[in-house]
Amino acid sequence: MEKYLYIALFAPLVSSLFAALFTTTPKKQFVGIVASLLIFTAFVSSAILLTHILGTGEIVHVELMTWMATGNLYIPFGFVVDQVSVTMMMVVSLVSTIVHIYSIGYMDHDSGFNRFFSYLSAFVFSMMILVMSDNFAGLFIGWEGVGLCSWLLIGFWFHKESATWAANEAFIMNRIADLGMLIGIFLVYWNTGTLQYDGAFAAFANLDHATLTWIGIFLFIGAMGKSAQFPLHTWLADAMEGPTPVSALIHAATMVTAGVYLVVRSHELYALIPNVGLFIASLGAFVAIFAATMALVNRDIKRVIAYSTLSQLGYMFAAAGLGAYWVALFHLMAHAFFKALLFLGGGNVMHAMNNELDPFKMGALGKTMKGTMIMMTLASVALAGIFPLAGFFSKDLILEVAFVDHHFIIYTVLLLTAGLTAFYSFRIIALIFHGEDRHTALGFHPHEAYKFMLVAMSPLLILAIIAGFTMKMPYFEMVTELLPATEYHIHSHTTYWIMTIGTQVFVLLAIFFAYKKYMCSSVKVPDGTSKMEKNFFYKLLINQYYIPYFYEEYIVKAYKALSVVFWEQIDKKIIDASVDGIANIFYNTGKNTRHMQSGNLSTMLKWMVAGTVALLSLAVVFGLAARYSGEITIILSSLGV
Amino acid sequence: MFEAVAFYLFAFLTITMFYITVTTSQALYALSALAAGMIFISAFFFILGADFLGAVQIIVYTGAVMALYAFGMMFFDTTREVKENHGNKYIVVALGTLAAVLVVVIFAAPMVSTNMQAFYPMTEGAGNTEMVGMVLFTKYLVPFEVAAFMLLVAMIAGIVLAGKKMDLSLTIMNAEEIQASEDEKNKKVLS
Amino acid sequence: MMEIGLNHYLVLSTILFCIGLIGVMRRKNLLLLFFATEILLNAVNVGFAAISHYYGDLTGQMFAFFVIAIAASELAVGLGLLILWHKRHGTIDLDTMTSMRG
Question: What predicted TM-score, i.e. pTM, was given to this entire model?
Answer without folding.
Answer: 0.67
